[in-house]
């Protein structure tokens, strides 16, 4: 599959990040816990540079619990603060403010010692589309400050948002990068909904997802759809799921579009199970 998506507003957002980075004290880098590597924008890494940051692994409730902890250890070994959260249910979000204050404690103490009146700690939240930025902001602020949606690219423009405690947040739209060096990265983003389904062949995407699940979570796939995987191709598995779920057209033909949407939707909602597509040891 040739996946390449870089809407015009994303180029503008890249410039916005560069321009406004000097206004903030710390960066919150929001990743998808199911795909911490693929959801990490390498452009953002370059733009942030040595600015203090907290890595936030969102949607941890949809990811494998054991592998979640492995990712936390992975970042800890690299002296990077990482937090597991479920922004939709406001789980773990209080630690974000705690860690931000801890990281910036020395800087704030120096300002106080110089007699400089303490200003609000300003943070920037960055991440790819549909990773949950607006949901997180609303959880932290306790009100609907940012627009949310289950489609990539809902957030637009720049806005400062007052959070709990002495913290202000600069929200930015989600950005991808112009070219995927690795097509597996593009597939992972497509599986989790970071790329609009409309620009892809949804049936091939679902087939690729089945192929991946056979590799990383075969038992969960079998348990959810009551299918056997041994000696079967991904296409045969997809067709068996279609038959079991009634995704059939007139004449007993398989409704590939319907079963494709069903499988992708159930993966994204965690209905198939808690599944992580990327492991730190790999």
Helical coverage, percent range: 40-55%
Overall 3D form: elongated
Number of strands: 6
Question: Structural class, judged by helices and strands?
Answer: alpha/beta
Show unreliable segments.
Answer: 148-156
> Strand-residue fraction?
5-15%
Distance between the termini: 23 Å
What is the string of SSEs from the N terminus onward? HEHEHEHHEHEEHHHHH
CATH fold group of the largest domain: Rossmann fold
CATH class designation of the largest domain: Alpha Beta
> For this structure, what is the CATH homologous superfamily of the largest domain?
P-loop containing nucleotide triphosphate hydrolases
At CATH level 2, the architecture of the largest domain is: 3-Layer(aba) Sandwich
Radius of gyration: 21 Å
Query: Strand count, sense and closure of the main sheet?
Result: 6 strands, mixed
Strand numbers in spatial order across the main sheet: 3-2-1-4-6-5
Total helices: the number is 11
Mean pLDDT: 86
Total domain units: 2
Describe, in plain words, how this protein is organized in 3D:
It comes from Caloranaerobacter azorensis DSM 13643. With 282 residues, this protein is an alpha/beta fold. It is elongated and about 80 Å long. It has two domains: 8-171, Rossmann fold (3-Layer(aba) Sandwich), CATH 3.40.50.300; 201-269, Conserved Hypothetical Protein Ylqf, Chain: A, domain 2. Helix 8 (202-216) crosses helix 9 (218-225). The protein is built from eleven helices and six strands.
């Amino acid at each position: 599959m040739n996946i390449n998506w870089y809407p015009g507003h994303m180029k503008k957002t890249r410039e916005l990040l560069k321009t406004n980075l000097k206004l903030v004290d710390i960066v919150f880098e929001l990743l998808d816990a199911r795909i911490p590597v693929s959801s990490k924008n390498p452009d953002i890494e370059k733009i942030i540079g040595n600015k203090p940051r907290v890595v936030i692994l969102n949607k941890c409730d949809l990811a494998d619990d054991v592998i979640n902890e492995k990712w936390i250890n992975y970042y800890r070994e690299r002296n990077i603060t990482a937090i597991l959260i479920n922004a939709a249910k406001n789980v773990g979000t209080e630690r974000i403010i705690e860690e931000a204050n801890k990281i910036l404690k020395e800087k704030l103490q120096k300002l106080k010692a110089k007699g400089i009146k303490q200003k609000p700690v300003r943070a920037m939240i960055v991440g790819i589309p549909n990773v949950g930025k607006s949901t997180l902001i609303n959880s932290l602020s306790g009100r609907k400050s940012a627009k949310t949606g289950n489609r990539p690219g809902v957030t637009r423009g720049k806005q400062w948002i007052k959070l709990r405690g002495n913290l202000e947040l600069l929200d930015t739209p989600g950005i991808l990068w112009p070219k995927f060096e690795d097509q597996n990265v593009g597939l992972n983003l497509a599986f989790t909904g970071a790329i609009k389904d409309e620009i892809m062949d949804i049936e091939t995407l679902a087939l690729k997802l089945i192929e991946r699940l056979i590799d990383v979570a075969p038992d969960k796939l079998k348990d959810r759809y009551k299918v056997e995987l041994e000696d079967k191709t991904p296409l045969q598995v997809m067709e068996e799921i279609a038959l079991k779920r009634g995704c059939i057209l007139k004449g007993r033909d398989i409704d590939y579009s319907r079963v494709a949407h069903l499988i992708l939707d159930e993966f994204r909602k965690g209905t198939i199970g808690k599944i992580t597509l990327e492991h730190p040891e790999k």
